[in-house]
């Protein structure tokens, strides 16, 4: 099945696309999650998932900052209280903000929303989610923020 790229949209109340994420949402700040807004969910979606990933982190698979599963298709806002908070690359549950190495330059933080045709079982890692549920993605989209230290 081909992934549609029709109407699904994700935006962030805390930063404009491709602009810096405010320090309060970073580890060196208060480390509070950003607030995301979702629109255009396909009518046949069964569940939504959200993942924040930094591909610029100096690790083989980048760094996953946030995984959220179990979001109903009617979900329109996502924060640290939403859905089933899953593991990040620290092995902890929930959101951990930007924390790139000092002097490593600007990192990009991709906040992905996935509309799925099935329910997600448990709280898989980002890698396991993409492997197991990739074939079930109806539509996906992302908003990108930046951060540097």
UniProtKB/TrEMBL annotation:
Residues annotated as transmembrane: none
Region described as Disordered: spans on this chain: 75-101
Protein family: Belongs to the UPF0098 family.
Protein name: YbhB/YbcL family Raf kinase inhibitor-like protein
Lineage, uppermost ranks: Bacteria, Bacillati, Actinomycetota, Actinomycetes, Pseudonocardiales
